[in-house]
Amino acid sequence: MQRIAIFASGSGTNAENLIKTYKNTEISVVRIFCNNENAGVLERAKRLQIPVTLFKKADLWDDKVIYNALISEKIDCIVLAGFMMLLPQNIIDAYRDKIVNIHPSLLPKYGGKGMYGHHVHEAVLANDEKESGITIHLVNEIYDSGEILFQAKCPVLENDTPDSLATRVHALEYEYYPKVVADYIKTL
Ligand code: GAR
To answer: Is residue 133 within 6 Å of ligand 1 at its C-beta?
Structure first.
């Protein structure tokens, strides 16, 4: 059994998809870590009966609260699902090559600090890109720069809005993220 923790800051649709896909499998979603008290993922976690740790930035960076929680719960891997903060060095070091993120563009395009969620889709449309997609990658000290595990593309259509493009990109996320993470975890 592999024990994973999901970190999420927002709506949590990917977190819900991961939890549902891994139910009754060799992967156990042990806990959700969330830094936003207004995040939709909190309601999803409650409904799906997954324990949540709601934390402040200081808990993550200044103290060892989150690090200690991960260690004491024997978490094997961390999966970021719309998590909007950089992880601190102690967690990166303890979980080297064991932290996976999903990004809603074809990295290295439209990555880096400030590039998340709708900001990414707005930038893709502003630059008249003909395609976008998803990147699933390992996490290191620098935003969106770890080794790429998987990418999938979708077209950008003439009349796309950030919302319509986000819907197409989300569909790719739901299709591929649980499988790519599960396949990767098996190799560890
Ligand atoms: C997803 O599209 C994910 O790729 C993106 O945030 C969204 C979260 O949606 N992540 C980033 O932009 C990370 N830089 P969700 O809360 O519904 O899963």
So the answer is: no
- Choice from 170, 174, 176 to test ligand 1 binding pocket (greatest atom count within 8 A of CB): 170
pTM of this structure: 0.97
Question: What residue spans of the chain are helical by DSSP H?
Answer: 13-22, 40-48, 57-61, 65-72, 89-94, 117-126, 162-186
Q: What is the pLDDT of residues 177-186, one digit of tens each?
A: 999 999 999 9
Residue 103 to residues 20, 30, 143, 156, Cα–Cα distance (Å): 20, 23, 10, 16
pLDDT of residue 63: 79
User: How many angstroms separate the CA atoms of 124 and 120, rounded?
Assistant: 6
